[in-house]
């Protein structure tokens, strides 16, 4: 299907998901980029305690807090 036809169907409110390969779909701007940050031991201990209390991983806690501080929604399931 040509993009113009797809756009027309979408704009008309027709269902277009049958034309998409959802297994390959990705949200724009959510690509993972690895960074290394050194924290003092006391901070890691505090992070671990809070992560255990909430039942999440340290990494998830850090991502949630940073996303909250930056005013962006956290993306679940990303590394």
Characteristics:
mainly alpha; single chain; 3 helices; 79 residues
What does this structure look like?
- The chain has 79 residues and is mainly α.
- The protein has one domain.
- The chain is 46% helix and 0% strand.
- The protein contains 3 helices and no strands.
- The protein has helices at residues 3-11, 41-54, 58-70.
- The longest helix has 14 residues, at 41-54.
- It is elongated, with a radius of gyration of 20 Å.
- 0% of the residues are buried.
Summarize this, please?
The chain has 79 residues and is mainly alpha-helical. It contains three helices and no strands. It has one domain.
Q: What is the strand tally?
A: 0
Question: Number of folding domains?
Answer: 1
Question: What is the helix/strand order?
Answer: HHH
In DSSP terms, counting alpha (H) and pi (I) runs of 4 or more, how many helices?
Answer: 3
Shape: elongated
Relative helix content = 40-55%
Mean of pLDDT: 89
Low-confidence runs: none
What is the makeup of the main sheet?
none
Residue fraction in strands = under 5%
What secondary-structure arrangement, pairings included, does this model have?
Layout: H1 3-11, H2 41-54, H3 58-70
Helix pairs in contact: 2-3
